[in-house]
Amino acid sequence: MSLSINFPLGNLNDATITVEELLSQLPRRSIQRVFISYFMETIGKTYHIVDEAAYERELRAFWMPGSVTPEDWLGVHFVILSLGCQVYNHHAFRTGQDIYEALPVRLLRGAELCLKRTPFLFHASLNIIKMLSLMVIAKQGLTGLIARLATSMGLHTDVPVSDEPTPYEEKMKRRVWTLAVYMEMKQSLVCGMPLLLRSSDMAALL
């Protein structure tokens, strides 16, 4: 299996896959734990986009029998597993252990399918921005979309992300916007192109 050249935006009209089919693509729980650990120890500590304690609570709820999982959270989970698997494979290859060669792409494909099931172009969420941000780490080129969606949510302003925002939501709003700005600035430097953001948009970081 290979990723679409337009990952994660290929065939947006094809959202026929069911949640059950998506869940069937996940490795067993013990393997997920290994990948999550590798992610948290590397990428998680670099970008600080995933709150480890909150993610652990969400993970336990996800694994509860009969739980209903939002597609935007499930997409984040898929990307975390994919990136964690890539880190694991790098370590395993260097130490002569077996690797999961095809699994990172399969997990990213699962994240792409989760994204297709959300109205991300019309109604973004913090998890959607997190998912896309993590996808950028896996494949460059989405920073402009992330910046626009984050701005459309008002992450660059004092507008709350929900009617009754929790302290966690406010903290993650700041983290997600900080990462969006960082990636946009990095992409601008690499490509030699002007920023899509205005200087006033940076005020939320101060």
UniProtKB/TrEMBL annotation:
Domain Xylanolytic transcriptional activator regulatory: 38-202
Pfam short name (any one): Fungal_trans
A GO MF term: zinc ion binding
Keyword annotations of the record: Nucleus
Annotated InterPro entries: Sec_Metabolite_Reg, XnlR_reg_dom
Location of this chain's protein in the cell: Nucleus
GO annotation, biological process: DNA-templated transcription
Major localization class: nucleus
Keyword Plastid on entry: no
GO cellular component: a single term: nucleus
Protein known as: Xylanolytic transcriptional activator regulatory domain-containing protein
Lineage, top ranks: Eukaryota, Fungi, Dikarya, Ascomycota, Pezizomycotina
